[in-house]
Design brief:
Length: 333
């Protein structure tokens, strides 16, 4: 992290929201040929939440999570300077952040979407931190929210078992440099593998009859599961090691490992590669599945509300996913 800092940044509150409708592995087994045993042993997932209300979208979850975080610190929404909505499932391709800004009354906030799939929250938090470090803003609301249930092909058993809907939010606030909690970050993209995980826009075969223009629509999620798995277990440990090394920290300094909740086997494999004990892994996969950009703030909010995290604990956060893009943040709580 090569940043000239005028101010430090710290997370002052968290929030999350999930739909009430649970879908169990048994229920999925009635839609596609699979079983609770297959899904649980390969992924660690037991159930996921899906947004079923007509007219509800990612913004409903994002608003609920944001209001929780705002209420927790009794903040006036008008004091939020910037709102970043990390999502890859907006309900408006021009962006959904402005609708969230309007609904929560963050009337003074610049609001924009950030599209980076499952790494969206990590990149959103790093982006927010830059605006704080350089003195531009004091209060930034970062939301990770996705409703991939709307983008999954429910007849494709290789993907529909994995994903769930949720939102998580944090408020990142300026503080003195000595109290800064974003100690370092490391972000990477390798566009060679963009096809491994995508929701591609596909053009129609026939063009517009007069303009000769090809229009089309977005298709369902497609994924090369094996390659994504290999990528995650090889690149994430390297990213974490390099991020720690930069600031002369070691694996022994880590109190908590908070990885993107994609697959329990990935969490365990990464922890084993780094020789981090399993009791330091934060995981709520069994209940929510992979909630994309929401997974890290959702899990963070859960452990914070359970008072598991103590002041000064070192949390290593790592996101990975489509792009392929991945990244680590070292956080002092
Ligand atoms: N139920 C039962 N069988 C299934 C199945 C399901 N839901 N999905 C696939 N299978 C079958 C396959 O058809 C294949 O059968 P075959 O051997 O007869 O061809 C067999 O199970 C093995 O499939 P494979 O894709 O090799 O399984 P896997 O061990 O790689 O596990 C994943 C699949 C998706 C669980 C695993 O690859 C994974 O977790 N990858 C990472 C995905 C991820 O995290 N993506 C998001 C990143 S942000």
């Amino acid at each position: 992290m090569k940043t000239s800092m005028l101010q430090g940044a710290k997370i002052v509150s968290t929030g999350s929201a999930t739909p009430s409708i649970k879908v169990s592995n048994e229920q999925i087994s009635s839609i596609v040929e699979t079983s609770d045993e297959w899904i649980f042993t390969r992924t660690g997932i037991k159930e996921r939440r899906i947004l079923t209300e007509y007219g509800h979208s990612v913004t409903n979850l994002a608003v609920e999570a944001a209001l929780q975080a705002i209420t927790e610190v009794s903040m006036n929404p008008a004091d939020i300077d910037l709102l970043i909505l990390a999502t890859s499932s907006p309900n408006d391709l021009f962006g959904s952040a402005s609708s969230v800004q309007n609904q929560i009354g963050a009337i003074n906030a610049l609001a924009f979407d950030l599209t980076a799939a499952c790494s969206g929250f990590v990149i959103g938090l790093v982006t927010a931190a830059q605006f704080i470090f350089n003195g531009t803003y004091k209060n930034v609301l970062v939301i990770g929210a996705d409703v991939l249930s709307k983008w999954v092909d429910w007849s494709d058993r290789s993907t529909c078992i994995l994903f769930g809907d949720a939102a998580g939010a944090v408020i990142l606030q300026s503080c003195s440099i000595n109290s800064n909690s974003i100690l370092n970050f490391h972000l990477k993209t390798d566009g060679n593998y963009t096809d491994y995980l995508s929701i591609a826009y596909k053009e129609n075969l026939t063009p517009h009859p007069i303009l000769n223009l090809y229009q089309g629509s977005f298709k369902y999620i497609s994924m090369n599961g094996k390659e994504v798995y290999k990528f995650a277990v090889s690149q994430v440990p390297l990213s974490i090691i390099s991020c720690l090394k930069d600031i002369k920290m070691s694996i022994n300094d880590i109190d908590w490992l908070l990885l993107h909740q994609a697959n329990e086997r990935i969490l365990i494999a990464v922890a084993e590669k780094l020789a981090i004990s399993r009791d330091k892994i934060i995981s709520n996969l069994s209940e929510y599945g992979n909630t994309s950009a929401a997974s890290i703030p959702l899990a963070l909010n859960e452990v914070v509300k359970l008072n598991k995290i103590s002041n000064d604990d070192i949390i290593v956060i790592a996101g990975f996913g489509a792009g392929l893009t991945w990244g680590t943040i070292i956080l002092r709580w």
